[in-house]
Records
---
Amino acid sequence: MDFCENITPVILAGCLGTRLRPLISDLPKVLAPVNGKPFLTYLLDQVNATGFSQVVLCTGYKGEVVRQIIGDIYTGLTVRYSYEKEPLGTGGALRLAHHLVSTDNVLVMNGDSYVETDLAAYLSWQTGNRFKASILLTRVADAGRFGSVRVNQDNLITCFEEKKDDSSSGLINGGIYMINKSLLEMIPSGKRYSLEQEFFPALAGKCLYGYPCEARFIDIGNPESYSRAEKFLKDVIRIRSNYSNE
């Protein structure tokens, strides 16, 4: 698709996966097996299906294992790697990969979550509105577990609410972002920095917009959610296959 030419997809794949260690041994979290294949490959398949020809992986813990398993070409995608020698957080990892981004915009995806959505529709909305930054938001039944996001009538993100013991539904950060490359210079180089805790709150109420969607969401951040990923992603593949055969 035309808009893909001015967007570089970047997947944050440096997660340690400490809470999953009893289940995945010493693998990095993004390589946690789901239905016999690394979780990361589902995200790469989603990027590929959207029409991109290249992707950047921000790796950290056991980054060499990620490269060994994924390789430099994945189902037609050219894969480039940015490796952090010490944990830099989501923002610091993205800043480190700055030199691998040659386009005006960056599509950033968390490597430990998956949103069953049409990425092309989100990217078309973002580029059509020419927003400096946006977050794909999805509605879940237990927003308190993740922390909810508030938007106004223009979809401008006004604030982020902390995680709390509340089982009510709400919009959450789906772990998929579009950011203009110029904004990456706000992130300090070589320092630990969080997109979720520092970067996005600084943009709230100014130039950060939300794209609300009713899409199913899964993360593999803890053993309970990881155990649900197998059925979730089987359903994703089945639905995608049925759609392709229509």
---
Amino acid sequence: MAVPVIELSALQMGEKIGDGGEGEVYLVSNKPSDVFKVFKDSVRSELNEGGLAATIGLLDSMAPHDRAFITSRAVWPHTLVKDKGSFGGFLMPLLPSDYFCLHGGKGSPIEGMNDWNKLTFRKAWMNNPNLESNSPALWYPAGKDFDSLNAAEKKKRVSLLKLLKDLAQVFETLHKHNIVVGDVSGRNILWSRQTGDSVMLIDCDGCRIDKTVGVTKAKQSPEWFDPHLNGPTNIESDLYKMAIAIYRGYFSDSLGKPENNSVPLASNADREIQRLALRGVGQSARPTASEWVNALGNLITESDNDGRPVISLWTAAPKPISTPPTSTPTQTPPTSSRPSFDWKP
């Protein structure tokens, strides 16, 4: 499928709403559901139009279910923008308001993105009387056994585990298609303010097929470097950064790393997340995104059951009757007595 292209002259430029290291982001008056990212002069010389065109086309090769999931969890570029034939930017979807929050000084919070830093630094701001925020106050007292938490803390803990699982599912889906995220940081992972249990990736123009070149040179953010990486970012370095994101998000350890963890591991979730995170930052045998999804799913089930015995949905087959009554006709069993499930991630 051909990649959509539009001329800059066809766009009615609106307010600038973002300014990053590589580009600026503007509202587009005649395309209210999109925003325009224009690359700065400092990176113009390295722009690879074919790299961005390939990134845009990656979603076309996905099954409808995967494509729908990624477009709901990532601000994916969809149209090249050219100025008299010269490539310089692209259109991408406007971020939903659910991924913004009010956060800052008491009485004067500032509206900004509800990014991963709000999650990993929450221990510092949740009980600070001088700060005001409507970012979800998810559970953070790691080191406490689940049974010692009150009902509100238990509910927040389950939401936190669901959020971490959602992040792992995004990586799982992209990695299934051999797509590298690359630059992962506390600023380019957002999370929902209302539900608190779904993520949104931004800066997705850097996503690419492993071992290919993106629109600009592959970059990494400070405090998120994979120390064992040789060469461009790849799926293995994604696994390192995903482990860091999950570890910091769960333990509220801001810029910490699993090997330096000082929080007592009092619950099964504490121990399992610490164990997987330690593997994730190792040099080899890093847990895949699928391993994280399965492990977090199990922890969610344990938390939802809240210590209650798990009742199996499957009932034991009745014992055969050696001599069935002759007066009762034999009945053909149904094709299946198992309930059907519509599983969705």
---
Amino acid sequence: MTAVWRTVFDGLDRHGRVAMVTIAAKRGSSPRDAGARMVIFPDATFSGTIGGGTLEWKATAIAQAALANPGAPKAETRGFALGPELGQCCGGNVELVVEIIEKDRRAEIATLAEHEADRRFTTRGRLVSDRGVIREVVTSATLPPGAAGYAGGVLTEGFGDERRPVALFGAGHVGRALVMALAPLPFRVTWIDPRPDAFPTHLPANVTAIQADDPVEVLATMPDGTFVLAMTHSHPLDLAVMAAALAEPRFPYAGVIGSKTKRARFTRQLTEAGIPRARVAGMVCPIGASAMHSKLPAVIAATTAVELLERDEAVNAAALMDEGARA
């Protein structure tokens, strides 16, 4: 869940109280890692997942029972051995934090939702049975969004936008298919095209469309870590996008739709333009290369989405290793 606190805030306004279940710690194999969570509402609807299966069913039942009982603790831990107790083949152990959040904490939740909307932050919380998890924002520790740790009765959690920014140039058939493929995935897409009326009327929630007379100029506004993809109606524009993206080491992925022939031509032109050879060698072309030979836009989009997920995981892992080395 990206917008944890916005989900809780909206739930308080609709229902007056909500439950949140968080995997605070795990040992061994489990369906989700520490930091996975669900927000559960009194009408039995919910948002998020802690992995499905018997664990999630059990956690949901515990949360619903607490919501229905005004005298239930507002914060408690529940530990489960997944194999012996729940019959799940994962075999590990998880510790859940189950909390009930009441409407009298609306102002506090609103502040957390505001923080979550514009930055990443870490909280440290104490479990207080008759009040809930009492959190404070801390600067002495940094956890990535969606992570958590629990030790000595203290719950440490990372919040904020964990979606990878993507600059997608081109609103043709493959661009449209890729936007739909990325809609449920952890990406925040800026979709750029110079043509008027190039975009569909309705866009996924994680997409911002920009009609730009000079699309390449948009790259200067994109944050560090953005993945850049070019699939425009114009080969010269694709080349210009790749030149601008590869000239900036802050963009860890630059890919262009095409063929081996297009890659060879672009490699020569980019090298002649003075782009460092190592950066040119890192250009992905064709995008979505796999054992699939289909040229259907939806298939290209699906394989490209997998490619972006793999690269996102690799970039995040490298960043964590760098942080560890500096610590």
